[in-house]
Amino acid sequence: MSTIGELSVAAETFALGETIERVPGVTFDVERVVAHDADRVMPFVWASAPDREALEDAFESDPSVDNVELLSDLDGEWLYRMEWVARVQFVVHALLEEQATVLNAESENRRWQLRLLFPDRDSLSRTYDFCREHDIEIDVEAIYAMENERHARFGLTEEQAEALDAAFEHGYYEVPRDLSVADLADELDISHQALSERFRRAHGNLVENTLIIDEGDTEQQLTPNL
Question: What's the pTM?
C-alpha cells in the first residue's frame, strides 16, 4: 500500500544549507522537482527573503546549487529554477531508485520538512537505511497509509485541502459567491494573503495533477505546496 513519510533534515546537511545560514529570514518552498540522474535534481523553488541581492549573492557561493535562474517576481517572493548538485543523495535515491514522489518540501527554522509518497512502506524503509549508510541525519516524523491521505493523489498539502474544503462548504465557489476571500481567511484564522497564496498553489497542483498528463515523461517529478 502506498505510504506517506514526513521527513525532517537539517538544512546544513541538505541543499541550500549555506544560503539558509547566510541569509537570516530566508524561506524556501519547492514548486516542482525533476530528478535527471544520480548526481543532481532540478527544482523550481519559491524564495522569500528580506534582501533579494543578498539572497542571490548567497546562491553564488553555495556549493550545493548551480545554474540559478529567476523566473518570476511576485511582490517579495521569487520563483527560481536551479540545479541541486550536492547533498541531495537521499532525494535522488528516493525518486530514481524507490519511485517515490515528493509532495511537499519547504525550509523552516533551519530545517527542511519533506513529505514523500512511497509505493509501499518497504521503499520508505530502504530510503531511511540509505540515509543511515551514507551518514545523512534524517528524522522520520510521521508515517501513514495513502488511504488516510486521499488528497495527496492530487499533489495537495493538508493546508491546501483544508482551504479548498472550507471554500466549497462555505459557498466560495457558488455564483454569486456566498463569502469573500477575506471572510474565509477569518474563518480559517489565517491572513488574506496567506489564503490567496494557498489557493494559487492548490489550484495549480490540481490542474497539473488532473488535467496535464504527459505520458512520455518518465522522470520522477514533485509537485508541492503551501
Answer: 0.64
